[in-house]
Amino acid sequence: MLISGGVAMTRILTDPMAPSTFSPLLNHARTHHIGASSFLIVDILLLLGAAALTISFSQAFQACLSL
């Protein structure tokens, strides 16, 4: 997930036609790199879900050990 997210960020940020300031860069990425932008959003959501499941599993494991 981290590698594919890094590749998508590199694709967006190394575009020679992209503006150098932050707000116009986001607008450019949203209009010209729709696939990479949507992939990053889904990748971040999956990463957050995996992190939440990992944390809840470790808490459940600790609770089972205390029984």
TrEMBL record:
Annotated keywords: Membrane, Transmembrane, Transmembrane helix
Name of the featured protein: Uncharacterized protein
Highest taxon in the source lineage: Eukaryota
Species this protein is from: Hibiscus sabdariffa
TM annotation in the entry: 34-57
